Amino acid sequence: MRAMLKKIEIKNFKSLKDCSIELRDFNVVIGQNASGKTNFVELFKLLRKIYADGEPFPFLDWWGYDNVVWDRKEELPITIKLFFASNGYNYSFETIFTGVGGKFQILKEALEIEGILSLEIEGEWLRVRHDEKFLEDAWVKIQGMDESNSSLHELLEKRKEDLVEQSVKVDKKTTPYCVFEGLGSRSFSFYKNLALVEAKYERQVEQYPLFILEPSIGEGFEMEPFSLFANWEIQEFIKNITILKGLDIRKMKEPYKQRREVRISEEGDNICNILYNLFLKENKIPDRVDSLLSYIFPDTSLRFELTQDGRVLMKVFERYASGRFLEVTAPGISDGFYKALTIFTALESEPSLLVVDEVENSLHAKALELLIDELKMSECRTILTTHSPMVVDIVEPKDLILVEKGDEGSVFRRSEKPEEVRKELSERGITLSERWLYGKL
Predict the structure, then answer these.
(1) Residues 140 and 169 placed together within one structural domain of the fold
(2) How far, in Å, CA of 341 to CA of 387, rounded?
(3) DSSP E strand boundaries for 69-223
(4) HEC per residue, 376-439
(5) pTM
(6) Mean pLDDT, all residues of the chain
(7) What is the predicted pLDDT for the residue at 197?
(8) Rounded Cα distance, 56 and 104, in Å
Protein backbone atom coordinates (compact mmCIF):
# COMPACT_ATOMS: atom_id res chain seq x y z
CA MET A 1 0.00 0.00 0.00
CA ARG A 2 1.30 3.44 -0.96
CA ALA A 3 1.23 6.39 1.40
CA MET A 4 -1.64 8.69 0.47
CA LEU A 5 -1.05 12.43 0.78
CA LYS A 6 -4.11 13.88 2.55
CA LYS A 7 -3.06 17.40 3.41
CA ILE A 8 -0.17 19.81 3.15
CA GLU A 9 0.72 22.84 5.29
CA ILE A 10 3.16 25.48 4.06
CA LYS A 11 4.70 28.50 5.72
CA ASN A 12 6.86 31.23 4.17
CA PHE A 13 7.31 29.76 0.68
CA LYS A 14 6.91 32.53 -1.90
CA SER A 15 3.26 33.76 -1.67
CA LEU A 16 2.29 30.80 0.52
CA LYS A 17 2.79 32.55 3.84
CA ASP A 18 0.57 30.27 5.91
CA CYS A 19 -1.51 27.80 3.92
CA SER A 20 -3.32 24.57 4.68
CA ILE A 21 -4.59 22.54 1.72
CA GLU A 22 -6.76 19.42 1.97
CA LEU A 23 -6.25 17.01 -0.92
CA ARG A 24 -8.49 14.42 -2.54
CA ASP A 25 -7.66 11.90 -5.24
CA PHE A 26 -8.34 14.49 -7.95
CA ASN A 27 -7.72 18.21 -7.38
CA VAL A 28 -8.06 21.21 -9.70
CA VAL A 29 -6.51 24.48 -8.48
CA ILE A 30 -8.11 27.59 -10.01
CA GLY A 31 -7.41 31.27 -9.56
CA GLN A 32 -6.34 34.46 -11.26
CA ASN A 33 -2.85 35.10 -12.59
CA ALA A 34 -0.26 35.55 -9.82
CA SER A 35 -2.66 34.17 -7.20
CA GLY A 36 -0.27 31.37 -6.13
CA LYS A 37 -1.15 28.35 -8.31
CA THR A 38 2.31 27.94 -9.80
CA ASN A 39 3.94 28.58 -6.42
CA PHE A 40 2.01 25.57 -5.11
CA VAL A 41 3.37 23.49 -8.01
CA GLU A 42 6.92 24.68 -7.35
CA LEU A 43 6.68 23.66 -3.71
CA PHE A 44 6.77 20.02 -4.84
CA LYS A 45 9.72 20.83 -7.09
CA LEU A 46 11.63 22.18 -4.08
CA LEU A 47 10.79 19.07 -2.03
CA ARG A 48 12.23 16.89 -4.79
CA LYS A 49 15.40 18.97 -4.98
CA ILE A 50 15.97 18.56 -1.23
CA TYR A 51 14.90 14.97 -0.57
CA ALA A 52 15.18 13.19 -3.93
CA ASP A 53 18.04 14.97 -5.69
CA GLY A 54 19.98 15.95 -2.55
CA GLU A 55 21.07 19.29 -4.03
CA PRO A 56 23.48 21.14 -1.72
CA PHE A 57 21.73 24.46 -2.44
CA PRO A 58 18.26 23.71 -3.79
CA PHE A 59 17.25 27.33 -4.48
CA LEU A 60 19.40 27.94 -7.55
CA ASP A 61 16.50 27.63 -10.03
CA TRP A 62 14.97 30.65 -8.29
CA TRP A 63 18.27 32.59 -8.18
CA GLY A 64 18.62 32.32 -4.40
CA TYR A 65 16.78 31.83 -1.13
CA ASP A 66 15.56 35.42 -1.04
CA ASN A 67 13.41 34.68 -4.11
CA VAL A 68 11.60 31.73 -2.53
CA VAL A 69 10.99 32.96 1.03
CA TRP A 70 7.91 35.03 1.88
CA ASP A 71 8.30 38.76 1.25
CA ARG A 72 12.02 38.13 0.54
CA LYS A 73 12.65 38.02 4.29
CA GLU A 74 15.72 35.81 4.48
CA GLU A 75 15.53 35.62 8.26
CA LEU A 76 12.37 33.49 7.94
CA PRO A 77 12.60 29.70 7.62
CA ILE A 78 10.35 27.73 5.25
CA THR A 79 8.12 25.02 6.74
CA ILE A 80 6.50 22.16 4.84
CA LYS A 81 4.34 19.57 6.59
CA LEU A 82 2.93 16.56 4.74
CA PHE A 83 0.05 14.50 6.17
CA PHE A 84 -0.29 10.88 5.04
CA ALA A 85 -2.55 7.86 5.54
CA SER A 86 -1.03 4.37 5.26
CA ASN A 87 -1.76 0.89 6.60
CA GLY A 88 -4.51 2.17 8.89
CA TYR A 89 -2.32 4.90 10.44
CA ASN A 90 -2.22 8.66 10.00
CA TYR A 91 1.20 10.28 10.18
CA SER A 92 2.94 13.50 9.20
CA PHE A 93 6.41 14.61 8.18
CA GLU A 94 7.53 18.17 8.86
CA THR A 95 10.68 19.83 7.57
CA ILE A 96 11.90 23.34 8.42
CA PHE A 97 14.85 24.77 6.51
CA THR A 98 16.59 27.97 5.49
CA GLY A 99 19.03 29.26 2.90
CA VAL A 100 20.10 32.45 4.61
CA GLY A 101 23.57 33.65 3.73
CA GLY A 102 23.77 31.32 0.74
CA LYS A 103 23.88 28.21 2.97
CA PHE A 104 21.16 25.56 2.87
CA GLN A 105 20.40 24.16 6.32
CA ILE A 106 17.68 21.88 7.65
CA LEU A 107 16.71 23.29 11.04
CA LYS A 108 14.22 20.65 12.10
CA GLU A 109 12.66 17.42 10.87
CA ALA A 110 9.85 15.60 12.61
CA LEU A 111 7.76 12.49 12.06
CA GLU A 112 4.55 12.17 14.07
CA ILE A 113 2.46 8.99 14.08
CA GLU A 114 -0.98 10.06 15.27
CA GLY A 115 -1.77 8.77 18.75
CA ILE A 116 1.54 6.89 19.04
CA LEU A 117 4.75 8.92 19.00
CA SER A 118 6.75 11.73 17.47
CA LEU A 119 10.42 11.67 16.47
CA GLU A 120 12.29 14.85 15.71
CA ILE A 121 15.77 16.23 15.29
CA GLU A 122 16.34 19.93 15.92
CA GLY A 123 19.71 21.55 16.31
CA GLU A 124 21.78 19.40 18.67
CA TRP A 125 18.88 17.31 19.95
CA LEU A 126 17.16 14.14 18.85
CA ARG A 127 13.84 13.64 20.69
CA VAL A 128 11.26 10.90 21.08
CA ARG A 129 7.84 11.66 22.55
CA HIS A 130 5.35 8.86 23.18
CA ASP A 131 1.60 9.33 23.40
CA GLU A 132 0.82 8.53 27.05
CA LYS A 133 -2.22 6.34 26.36
CA PHE A 134 -0.37 4.33 23.72
CA LEU A 135 2.61 3.94 26.05
CA GLU A 136 0.33 2.70 28.83
CA ASP A 137 -1.12 -0.02 26.56
CA ALA A 138 2.30 -0.94 25.14
CA TRP A 139 3.84 -1.18 28.60
CA VAL A 140 1.26 -3.81 29.55
CA LYS A 141 2.02 -5.81 26.40
CA ILE A 142 5.80 -5.90 26.86
CA GLN A 143 5.44 -7.54 30.26
CA GLY A 144 4.74 -10.77 28.40
CA MET A 145 7.75 -10.57 26.08
CA ASP A 146 10.86 -12.73 26.39
CA GLU A 147 12.98 -11.14 29.12
CA SER A 148 16.11 -12.84 27.81
CA ASN A 149 16.12 -10.14 25.15
CA SER A 150 18.83 -7.69 26.24
CA SER A 151 16.99 -4.61 24.91
CA LEU A 152 13.82 -5.59 26.75
CA HIS A 153 15.73 -6.32 29.94
CA GLU A 154 17.37 -2.89 29.85
CA LEU A 155 14.03 -1.26 29.05
CA LEU A 156 12.22 -2.89 31.97
CA GLU A 157 14.84 -1.53 34.33
CA LYS A 158 13.57 1.95 33.49
CA ARG A 159 10.41 3.61 34.70
CA LYS A 160 7.55 3.87 32.24
CA GLU A 161 7.38 7.61 32.89
CA ASP A 162 10.95 7.98 31.64
CA LEU A 163 9.85 6.84 28.16
CA VAL A 164 7.22 9.52 27.60
CA GLU A 165 9.87 11.97 26.44
CA GLN A 166 13.52 11.10 25.72
CA SER A 167 16.28 13.27 24.30
CA VAL A 168 19.85 12.73 23.28
CA LYS A 169 22.44 15.30 22.28
CA VAL A 170 23.99 14.70 18.87
CA ASP A 171 26.91 15.96 16.84
CA LYS A 172 26.07 19.38 15.37
CA LYS A 173 28.12 18.61 12.26
CA THR A 174 25.65 15.94 11.20
CA THR A 175 22.92 17.14 8.82
CA PRO A 176 20.55 14.24 8.11
CA TYR A 177 18.17 14.49 5.16
CA CYS A 178 15.44 12.61 6.98
CA VAL A 179 14.83 12.32 10.67
CA PHE A 180 15.90 8.67 10.88
CA GLU A 181 18.91 8.83 8.58
CA GLY A 182 21.16 9.45 11.55
CA LEU A 183 19.88 6.54 13.63
CA GLY A 184 22.83 4.21 13.20
CA SER A 185 22.87 0.96 15.17
CA ARG A 186 19.41 -0.42 15.94
CA SER A 187 18.04 -3.57 17.49
CA PHE A 188 14.41 -4.66 17.17
CA SER A 189 12.15 -6.92 19.19
CA PHE A 190 8.58 -7.72 18.17
CA TYR A 191 5.53 -8.83 20.11
CA LYS A 192 2.47 -9.35 17.88
CA ASN A 193 2.05 -5.92 16.26
CA LEU A 194 4.31 -4.09 18.74
CA ALA A 195 7.92 -3.17 18.03
CA LEU A 196 10.59 -2.33 20.59
CA VAL A 197 13.40 -0.33 19.02
CA GLU A 198 16.70 0.34 20.75
CA ALA A 199 18.38 3.03 18.67
CA LYS A 200 21.74 4.75 18.97
CA TYR A 201 22.57 7.86 17.01
CA GLU A 202 25.72 7.13 15.05
CA ARG A 203 27.42 10.34 16.17
CA GLN A 204 25.77 11.00 19.49
CA VAL A 205 27.78 12.81 22.12
CA GLU A 206 26.39 10.94 25.12
CA GLN A 207 26.39 7.19 24.56
CA TYR A 208 23.04 5.84 25.64
CA PRO A 209 20.16 4.48 23.55
CA LEU A 210 16.66 5.73 22.87
CA PHE A 211 13.91 3.20 23.60
CA ILE A 212 11.00 3.48 21.18
CA LEU A 213 7.75 1.53 21.45
CA GLU A 214 5.58 1.60 18.32
CA PRO A 215 3.48 -0.56 15.96
CA SER A 216 5.22 -3.04 13.67
CA ILE A 217 4.48 -3.66 9.99
CA GLY A 218 4.70 -6.97 8.10
CA GLU A 219 5.06 -10.58 9.18
CA GLY A 220 7.86 -13.00 10.04
CA PHE A 221 11.26 -11.91 8.81
CA GLU A 222 9.64 -8.99 6.97
CA MET A 223 8.58 -7.21 10.16
CA GLU A 224 9.85 -3.70 10.82
CA PRO A 225 8.92 -0.77 13.07
CA PHE A 226 6.29 1.50 11.54
CA SER A 227 8.49 4.60 11.93
CA LEU A 228 11.16 3.09 9.66
CA PHE A 229 8.49 1.96 7.22
CA ALA A 230 6.99 5.47 7.20
CA ASN A 231 10.46 6.95 6.66
CA TRP A 232 10.87 4.76 3.57
CA GLU A 233 7.37 5.69 2.34
CA ILE A 234 8.07 9.41 2.67
CA GLN A 235 11.30 9.17 0.71
CA GLU A 236 9.63 7.04 -2.00
CA PHE A 237 6.69 9.44 -2.18
CA ILE A 238 8.89 12.49 -2.74
CA LYS A 239 11.19 10.67 -5.16
CA ASN A 240 8.23 9.59 -7.31
CA ILE A 241 6.44 12.93 -7.58
CA THR A 242 6.06 13.86 -11.26
CA ILE A 243 5.73 17.56 -12.12
CA LEU A 244 4.86 18.76 -15.63
CA LYS A 245 5.39 22.48 -15.98
CA GLY A 246 6.49 24.53 -18.97
CA LEU A 247 6.75 21.59 -21.38
CA ASP A 248 9.50 22.12 -23.97
CA ILE A 249 7.86 20.76 -27.12
CA ARG A 250 10.84 21.68 -29.30
CA LYS A 251 13.19 19.47 -27.28
CA MET A 252 10.64 16.64 -27.26
CA LYS A 253 10.90 16.46 -31.03
CA GLU A 254 14.66 15.97 -31.00
CA PRO A 255 16.45 12.60 -30.62
CA TYR A 256 17.25 11.82 -26.99
CA LYS A 257 20.17 9.87 -25.54
CA GLN A 258 18.95 6.40 -24.54
CA ARG A 259 19.37 5.62 -20.86
CA ARG A 260 17.41 3.99 -18.05
CA GLU A 261 14.85 6.51 -16.80
CA VAL A 262 11.45 6.05 -15.19
CA ARG A 263 10.42 9.62 -14.32
CA ILE A 264 9.48 12.29 -16.84
CA SER A 265 11.33 15.56 -16.38
CA GLU A 266 9.50 18.78 -15.56
CA GLU A 267 9.89 20.04 -19.14
CA GLY A 268 9.05 16.63 -20.62
CA ASP A 269 12.16 16.64 -22.82
CA ASN A 270 12.89 12.97 -22.01
CA ILE A 271 9.40 11.72 -22.98
CA CYS A 272 10.76 9.84 -26.00
CA ASN A 273 13.21 7.87 -23.87
CA ILE A 274 10.65 7.15 -21.12
CA LEU A 275 8.14 5.83 -23.63
CA TYR A 276 10.82 3.83 -25.44
CA ASN A 277 11.81 2.12 -22.16
CA LEU A 278 8.14 1.24 -21.59
CA PHE A 279 7.98 -0.03 -25.18
CA LEU A 280 10.95 -2.35 -24.61
CA LYS A 281 9.18 -4.16 -21.74
CA GLU A 282 6.54 -5.77 -24.01
CA ASN A 283 7.71 -4.71 -27.46
CA LYS A 284 4.72 -2.41 -27.83
CA ILE A 285 3.38 0.94 -26.69
CA PRO A 286 1.52 0.53 -23.34
CA ASP A 287 -2.13 -0.24 -24.03
CA ARG A 288 -3.48 2.76 -22.11
CA VAL A 289 -1.21 5.22 -23.92
CA ASP A 290 -1.97 3.65 -27.29
CA SER A 291 -5.75 3.56 -26.86
CA LEU A 292 -6.03 7.09 -25.47
CA LEU A 293 -3.87 8.56 -28.22
CA SER A 294 -5.85 6.64 -30.86
CA TYR A 295 -9.07 8.12 -29.53
CA ILE A 296 -7.81 11.72 -29.71
CA PHE A 297 -5.60 11.29 -32.78
CA PRO A 298 -7.20 8.52 -34.88
CA ASP A 299 -5.22 6.86 -37.67
CA THR A 300 -1.95 7.82 -35.98
CA SER A 301 0.80 5.43 -34.92
CA LEU A 302 4.19 5.69 -33.20
CA ARG A 303 7.49 4.04 -33.99
CA PHE A 304 10.97 4.34 -32.58
CA GLU A 305 14.33 4.48 -34.27
CA LEU A 306 17.81 4.41 -32.78
CA THR A 307 20.23 6.82 -34.39
CA GLN A 308 23.82 5.78 -35.10
CA ASP A 309 25.03 7.64 -32.02
CA GLY A 310 22.60 5.77 -29.72
CA ARG A 311 19.82 8.32 -29.42
CA VAL A 312 16.11 7.49 -29.52
CA LEU A 313 14.01 9.15 -32.21
CA MET A 314 10.22 8.91 -32.08
CA LYS A 315 8.45 8.87 -35.43
CA VAL A 316 4.79 9.61 -36.01
CA PHE A 317 2.82 8.17 -38.93
CA GLU A 318 -0.65 9.02 -40.23
CA ARG A 319 -2.80 6.58 -42.18
CA TYR A 320 -4.67 7.88 -45.19
CA ALA A 321 -7.92 6.60 -46.69
CA SER A 322 -5.93 4.46 -49.09
CA GLY A 323 -4.45 2.61 -46.12
CA ARG A 324 -1.00 4.02 -46.79
CA PHE A 325 1.02 5.40 -43.84
CA LEU A 326 2.95 8.60 -44.26
CA GLU A 327 5.55 9.84 -41.80
CA VAL A 328 4.79 13.23 -40.28
CA THR A 329 8.05 15.07 -39.72
CA ALA A 330 8.66 16.69 -36.34
CA PRO A 331 7.75 20.26 -37.41
CA GLY A 332 4.35 18.98 -38.57
CA ILE A 333 3.40 17.24 -35.31
CA SER A 334 1.02 19.29 -33.17
CA ASP A 335 1.95 20.53 -29.70
CA GLY A 336 -1.28 18.97 -28.43
CA PHE A 337 -0.08 15.54 -29.52
CA TYR A 338 3.06 15.86 -27.39
CA LYS A 339 1.14 17.35 -24.45
CA ALA A 340 -1.35 14.45 -24.39
CA LEU A 341 1.39 11.88 -24.95
CA THR A 342 3.42 13.28 -22.03
CA ILE A 343 0.53 13.19 -19.55
CA PHE A 344 -0.61 9.70 -20.58
CA THR A 345 2.96 8.40 -20.31
CA ALA A 346 3.34 10.06 -16.90
CA LEU A 347 0.29 8.11 -15.72
CA GLU A 348 1.80 4.89 -17.03
CA SER A 349 4.95 5.46 -14.95
CA GLU A 350 2.77 5.34 -11.78
CA PRO A 351 3.89 8.49 -9.93
CA SER A 352 3.08 8.93 -6.25
CA LEU A 353 1.66 12.34 -7.16
CA LEU A 354 1.10 13.86 -10.61
CA VAL A 355 1.19 17.66 -10.73
CA VAL A 356 0.34 19.39 -14.05
CA ASP A 357 0.56 23.16 -14.36
CA GLU A 358 -1.86 24.84 -16.80
CA VAL A 359 -3.28 21.55 -18.03
CA GLU A 360 -5.39 23.21 -20.75
CA ASN A 361 -2.48 24.48 -22.85
CA SER A 362 -2.40 23.07 -26.42
CA LEU A 363 -5.36 20.72 -25.85
CA HIS A 364 -8.75 20.71 -27.56
CA ALA A 365 -11.92 20.42 -25.43
CA LYS A 366 -12.46 16.79 -26.51
CA ALA A 367 -8.88 15.87 -25.56
CA LEU A 368 -9.18 17.69 -22.22
CA GLU A 369 -12.40 15.87 -21.35
CA LEU A 370 -10.88 12.48 -22.14
CA LEU A 371 -7.70 13.33 -20.24
CA ILE A 372 -9.56 14.49 -17.13
CA ASP A 373 -11.82 11.42 -17.18
CA GLU A 374 -8.75 9.19 -17.34
CA LEU A 375 -7.03 11.03 -14.49
CA LYS A 376 -10.12 10.75 -12.30
CA MET A 377 -10.46 7.02 -12.97
CA SER A 378 -6.78 6.30 -12.38
CA GLU A 379 -5.32 5.38 -8.99
CA CYS A 380 -2.89 8.28 -9.24
CA ARG A 381 -3.43 11.24 -6.90
CA THR A 382 -3.46 14.29 -9.17
CA ILE A 383 -3.18 18.07 -8.85
CA LEU A 384 -3.98 20.22 -11.90
CA THR A 385 -3.81 24.00 -12.18
CA THR A 386 -5.85 25.90 -14.74
CA HIS A 387 -7.12 29.30 -15.90
CA SER A 388 -9.61 27.69 -18.24
CA PRO A 389 -13.40 27.95 -17.73
CA MET A 390 -13.62 24.90 -19.99
CA VAL A 391 -11.70 22.76 -17.48
CA VAL A 392 -13.82 24.11 -14.62
CA ASP A 393 -16.98 23.02 -16.45
CA ILE A 394 -15.64 19.51 -17.05
CA VAL A 395 -14.94 18.79 -13.36
CA GLU A 396 -17.18 18.69 -10.28
CA PRO A 397 -17.47 21.43 -7.61
CA LYS A 398 -15.90 19.07 -5.05
CA ASP A 399 -12.76 18.79 -7.21
CA LEU A 400 -11.99 22.50 -7.14
CA ILE A 401 -9.51 24.34 -4.91
CA LEU A 402 -9.88 28.11 -5.27
CA VAL A 403 -6.79 30.20 -4.59
CA GLU A 404 -6.90 33.95 -3.98
CA LYS A 405 -4.10 36.32 -3.06
CA GLY A 406 -4.30 39.10 -0.49
CA ASP A 407 -1.96 41.19 1.64
CA GLU A 408 -1.11 38.13 3.75
CA GLY A 409 -0.37 35.87 0.80
CA SER A 410 -2.28 33.14 -1.01
CA VAL A 411 -5.34 31.53 0.54
CA PHE A 412 -6.60 28.12 -0.64
CA ARG A 413 -10.16 26.95 -0.02
CA ARG A 414 -12.70 24.43 -1.24
CA SER A 415 -16.43 24.88 -1.63
CA GLU A 416 -17.98 24.12 1.75
CA LYS A 417 -21.14 22.64 0.24
CA PRO A 418 -20.32 21.27 -3.24
CA GLU A 419 -23.61 19.35 -3.58
CA GLU A 420 -25.59 22.54 -2.99
CA VAL A 421 -23.49 24.26 -5.66
CA ARG A 422 -24.40 21.53 -8.15
CA LYS A 423 -28.09 21.88 -7.30
CA GLU A 424 -27.98 25.66 -7.71
CA LEU A 425 -26.24 25.38 -11.08
CA SER A 426 -28.98 23.06 -12.31
CA GLU A 427 -31.81 25.25 -11.00
CA ARG A 428 -30.40 28.49 -12.40
CA GLY A 429 -29.16 27.02 -15.68
CA ILE A 430 -25.63 28.36 -15.35
CA THR A 431 -22.26 26.70 -15.62
CA LEU A 432 -19.72 26.18 -12.86
CA SER A 433 -17.26 28.46 -14.65
CA GLU A 434 -19.82 31.28 -14.80
CA ARG A 435 -20.33 30.98 -11.07
CA TRP A 436 -16.55 31.08 -10.56
CA LEU A 437 -15.93 34.04 -12.89
CA TYR A 438 -18.52 36.09 -11.06
CA GLY A 439 -16.92 35.35 -7.70
CA LYS A 440 -19.63 33.10 -6.30
CA LEU A 441 -17.65 29.97 -5.55
Answers:
(1) yes
(2) 21
(3) 78-86, 89-98, 105-113, 117-122, 125-130, 165-169, 183-191, 194-201, 210-217
(4) HHCCCCEEEEECCHHHHHHCCHHHEEEEEEECCEEEEECCCCHHHHHHHHHHHCCCHHHHHHCC
(5) 0.90
(6) 86
(7) 82
(8) 7
- 195 lies in some domain: yes
Instruction: State residue 197 phi and psi, 5-degree precision.
Output: -115, 125
d(CA 262, CA 366): 29
Contacts for 359-363 with beta carbons within 8 Å, 24 or more apart?
A: 359/384, 359/385, 359/386, 359/388, 359/391, 360/386, 360/387, 360/388, 360/390, 360/391, 361/247, 362/249, 362/334, 362/335, 362/336, 362/338, 363/336, 363/339
Q: How many domains does the chain have?
A: 2
Torsion of CA 174, 175, 177, 178, to 10 degrees: 60
Asked which of 395, 412, 432 is the last residue of a domain, the reply is: 395
In a domain, 436, yes or no: no
State the Cα–Cα distance between residues 30 and 351, nearest whole angstrom. 23
Of residues 19 and 192, which shows the higher confidence score? 19
Question: In angstroms, what CA-CA distances link 24 with 2, 261, 353, 411?
Answer: 15, 28, 11, 18
- Per residue in 225-260, is it b (16+ CB within 10 Å) or e — as a string? bbbbbbbebbbebbebbbbbbebebeebbebbebee
E strands along 46-181, which residues?
A: 78-86, 89-98, 105-113, 117-122, 125-130, 165-169
How confident is the model over 293-300, as a mean pLDDT? 87
